[in-house]
Amino acid sequence: MPARVGAGAEMVVMDVVVDRCAGLDVHRDTVVATVRWPGKRKNSRGQETRTYATTQR
Fold first, then answer.
1. Which top-level group of life is the source organism from (predicted)?
2. Which helix (H) or strand (E) holds 31?
3. 21-29 long-range contacts, Cβ below 8 Å, gap at least 24?
4. Residue 42: per-residue pLDDT
5. Alpha carbon 46 to chain centroid distance?
6. 4: pLDDT confidence band, cut at 50, 70 and 90?
7. Residues 6+ apart with CB under 8 A from 11
8. C or N: which end of the chain has fewer Cβ atoms within 10 Å?
9. How many helices (H) and strands (E) does the chain have?
10. Is residue 23 within 8 Å of residue 5, measured between CB atoms?
Protein backbone atom coordinates (compact mmCIF):
# COMPACT_ATOMS: atom_id res chain seq x y z
CA MET A 1 0.00 0.00 0.00
CA PRO A 2 1.56 3.34 -0.98
CA ALA A 3 2.24 5.88 1.75
CA ARG A 4 1.51 9.46 0.72
CA VAL A 5 3.67 12.34 1.92
CA GLY A 6 2.98 15.85 0.70
CA ALA A 7 4.11 19.42 1.23
CA GLY A 8 1.71 21.96 -0.21
CA ALA A 9 0.75 21.01 -3.77
CA GLU A 10 3.65 18.54 -4.15
CA MET A 11 2.85 14.86 -3.55
CA VAL A 12 5.33 11.99 -3.23
CA VAL A 13 4.17 8.37 -3.26
CA MET A 14 6.28 5.59 -1.69
CA ASP A 15 5.69 1.88 -1.26
CA VAL A 16 6.13 0.46 2.23
CA VAL A 17 8.79 -2.23 1.80
CA VAL A 18 9.38 -3.30 5.42
CA ASP A 19 6.85 -3.05 8.29
CA ARG A 20 9.38 -3.61 11.07
CA CYS A 21 12.98 -2.47 11.32
CA ALA A 22 15.83 -2.24 13.81
CA GLY A 23 19.10 -0.37 13.99
CA LEU A 24 22.29 -0.45 16.04
CA ASP A 25 24.56 2.51 16.76
CA VAL A 26 27.88 1.18 18.05
CA HIS A 27 30.24 3.43 20.01
CA ARG A 28 33.29 2.79 22.16
CA ASP A 29 31.37 3.12 25.46
CA THR A 30 27.79 2.25 24.43
CA VAL A 31 25.59 0.41 21.93
CA VAL A 32 22.19 1.95 21.16
CA ALA A 33 19.47 -0.33 19.73
CA THR A 34 16.18 0.95 18.26
CA VAL A 35 13.23 -1.14 17.03
CA ARG A 36 10.20 0.24 15.13
CA TRP A 37 6.93 -1.56 14.38
CA PRO A 38 3.42 -0.72 13.08
CA GLY A 39 1.28 1.01 15.69
CA LYS A 40 -2.26 0.16 16.71
CA ARG A 41 -3.75 3.21 14.97
CA LYS A 42 -3.58 3.87 11.24
CA ASN A 43 -0.32 5.52 10.10
CA SER A 44 1.25 5.26 13.56
CA ARG A 45 4.48 3.60 14.69
CA GLY A 46 5.70 2.09 17.92
CA GLN A 47 9.33 2.59 18.81
CA GLU A 48 11.66 1.47 21.59
CA THR A 49 15.27 2.56 22.10
CA ARG A 50 17.67 1.04 24.62
CA THR A 51 21.27 1.92 25.45
CA TYR A 52 23.73 -0.69 26.67
CA ALA A 53 27.16 -0.11 28.17
CA THR A 54 30.10 -1.89 26.58
CA THR A 55 32.92 -3.60 28.41
CA GLN A 56 36.60 -2.97 27.90
CA ARG A 57 39.60 -5.17 28.67
1. Bacteria
2. strand 30-38
3. 27/54, 28/54, 29/53, 29/54
4. 86
5. 9
6. low
7. 4, 5
8. C
9. 0, 5
10. no
